[in-house]
Amino acid sequence: MFLSPQTDNQRFKTWLSQQPTICAIASSKIHYDFKVVWHPFFLNPSAPTEGVPKKEFYRSKFGSRADQMHSRMTEVFKNVGLEYNMSGLTGNSMDSHRLIHFAGQQDLGKQHDLVEELFIGYFTQGKYIGDRQFLVESANKVGVGGAAEFLQNPDNGRKEVHEEIKKYSANISGVPFYTINGKYQLSGGQPPEAFLRAFSAAAADST
């Protein structure tokens, strides 16, 4: 195991719209010590709050490509010991972004743990990212206090989410998207080796 110089200054930012990036981050954590900051991104800002079945949504959006995407995702998850689950709903993710922002105000470690819980629930357990109960349970599990009360007011965090999107996501066309120390950028699904190369370059900058 090795750590880069000035590892406490490593700052890893990732933009999400509930995409699976945790495994790549975890693999980098083995070699480097860094802080992870999550920022919001809406793939479909007009998605319904009540949610729609995932399978129906992906078929209507991607047509015949939906089956290929499902096969690819199944293989990706299988390679890290997880079972990709296409059951459940997909829809508006504003509440999850509000909660993630709220968690980050308490502690970035808790924010990252919360995102991991949301990913696992959404992608492997058929949980709906817009389900208030699921969000609160996930927050409680990782020690984010006051989640239920915070989400009860639909205005809490909404302004901050939109401000973050305007500030950080204006020039981003898709997710996942990552930036390391404000300089090195990665987009789309990337293997762990790509992250290690980027962190190695960032570490060299600080020597």
From TrEMBL:
InterPro entries: DSBA-like_thioredoxin_dom (IPR001853), Thioredoxin-like_sf (IPR036249). Residues 21-198 form the DSBA-like thioredoxin domain. Coiled coil: none annotated. Pfam families: DSBA. It comes from the Eukaryota. SUPFAM superfamilies: Thioredoxin-like. One of its GO terms (molecular function) is oxidoreductase activity. PANTHER family: GLUTATHIONE S-TRANSFERASE KAPPA, THIOREDOXIN SUPERFAMILY PROTEIN. This is DSBA domain-containing protein. It comes from Heracleum sosnowskyi. The lineage of its organism: Eukaryota, Viridiplantae, Streptophyta, Embryophyta, Tracheophyta.
